[in-house]
Design brief:
Length: 580
Amino acid sequence: MNDFDNVNTSRPLRRFWGLVALQKKELISIYFFSVLSGVINLSLPLGVQTIINQLFGGVISTSLVILVLIVVLGVVLSGWLTMLQMRVKERIQRKIFTRFSLQFAQKIPRLDLMSVEDYHLPELVNRFFDTSSLQKGLGKVLLEFPTASIQILFGSILLAFYHPVFILIGITLMGLLFVILKSTYVRGMLTSLMESNCKYEVGGWLEEVARTVQTLKFMGMNEFPARKADELVCNYLDARQAHFELIQRQYWAFIVYKVIITASLLIVGSILVIDQDINIGQFIASEIVIIMLLNSTEKIIGSLDVVYDMLTSLEKVHKVLDHPQEQEHGLDIFEISKAKGITIQLENLSYQYKDSNNPVLSNISFEIKGGENVCISGTQGSGKTTLLQLFTGAYLNYDGKLLFNGYPLANYNLQKLRLEVGVYLSNTELFSGTLYDNLTLGDNTHTIPFILETANKTGLLPYIQSLHDGLETKINSQGKKLTHNTINKILLTRSLLTKPRLLLMEDCWSGLERVEQEFLVNNLTSKENSYTLVAVSNDENFAKRCDKILLLDEGKIVAFGDYASVSATNEYEKIFKHVV
C-alpha cells in the first residue's frame, strides 16, 4: 500500500506538539538555559562596544581588564549552559527510544489482525528504526531552535536600543524567516514522505530477497533481484532529488535574504555613524549582533532537512501505532461459567476475506458442547483453518452468530478469553530465546515439574532430557536446526501449559511415527482432559477418537455428527479414503 495516498501534512506537526507536550520538565529546563544563554551571549557585543570605547583613551585601565574578564566569563558560562542543554537533550533521546520501544512491544501482540492483513508485518515494524532519526531530530530541534530563536529576539531588541531604524530591520528579519518556512513547509513535507516511502520499498524488497533466499539461489544466475532493486532505488533517487532541490531553494532564499540584510545594515550603520547618531563602538557592536542573528537564522534554515526527517520519522513510527488494536474490555469468560470446557455455537455464520469475491464460509450452523472432542475435516480450501482462526477471536468481521458459552464472541475481553484458550495453528512459530521462554511465553507461574509433566504428555520430555542445558537451551528464531516433529511438540506443549478450557489445533501429529501418533492422540482426546478440543485434521485415526466430526466442502457443512453417522456418507469417503 502507498503511504503517500491522502497525506495530511498538518498531522506530523500535531504529532510533534503532542510528543513535545510529554517532555514538559525537559522543555522548561531547555528554555530556561536558552534564555540565560541568550542574555549572556549579549555580553559579547556589549562588552566589545565598551572595550572599544575604553581603548580610545589609549590607556590600559583596571576597568578594561575587568571588562575583558567579564566577556571571557560570558563565553565560559555560555558554553557551560550549552553543556547542560546537551544533557537534557540526551535525556529526551533516551525517553523517546524507551517510550516507542515499549509502545511497539505492547501494541504488536494486540493489533487487530484485520487492519494489517494487507501488510507484511515484519516489514511494517521496520518503521521502528525511524526512532533513531526521531531521537536526533527532536534533540536538535529542541536544543538549537529555542536557542537560535531567543538569540534572534534578544539581538533584535538590543539593536532597537541603538537606533529605531534597527527595529524595522529586525521585524523584517523575522518576517522573512517566517515566510520562507511557511511557503516551503507543505512541499518539503510531501517530498520527505515520498523519499521515506521509496526507502522502505527498497528495504522491503531486500527483506523479501532474504526471506526467499533459497528459492532465488536455486534459480542460478538470476538477475531479477538486482533488476527489481535497481528499479526501486531509481524511484528513491528521484524522490531524494526532489526533496534536495527543495532544500536547495530554501537555502538560496536564505542567501538572498542574508545578502539583503547584511547590505542594509552596513549601509544604514555607516550612515548613522557618519551622521553621528551612533558611535563607532555601537556600530561594531551592532555588526556583531547582526552576525549573531544571521548565524542563528542560518542554523534554523540549515536544520530544516533535519526537521523534515524528524516529522517524517514521527509519521512512520505512528504508521504502526495508529493501527487499531483489539478490544481490551468486555466479559470475562471465567466469571460467566467455570464448567468443564467451553461451549461453542454457530448460527448462519459466514466469512469472506476483504479481497475475495467468494465467501470462505457460508451460512454454517452447529454446536460444540463443553468437553467434547471435535475433528474438522475437509478438502483443500474448504475453510477449515479459517473457521479455527475465527474461534481464536482474530477476526470479528463475520456475519451471523458465534457464541462462546451463550455470549457473542465479540462481547468478550479477548485478552482474558485467550487465557482460557490454547492455540496451535500452522502459522504458530518459535522465537529467539530459551526453550523455557518459548514454552511459557514469559509466564513464570508455571513450575518446572508442571512443565515437565505437560511435556511428557506431548512426547517432548525425552528431547528436554537429552539437552545439556535442559529448559535453558537456546532456541533460534523459527526453530532453525530443530526437526519438524520437535517444533510441533514444543508448540503443542506451549498450548497446553495454560490449562486451557478450549484447545484449538491444526494437524500437529503429521510426520510422527505411528506409535507417537497413537500416544499423542490418546492423550489429547482423553476424557480426563478439562478442555473442549477442536482440531483440524484429515487423519482418520484421530477422527475416530472424537465425539463429533465436522466435514466442510467449499465453505459449507456437508456432514456433522458422530463417527458412525458421518463415516457412512460419500463425503467422508471422499475426504478420508481419497475417493474422487
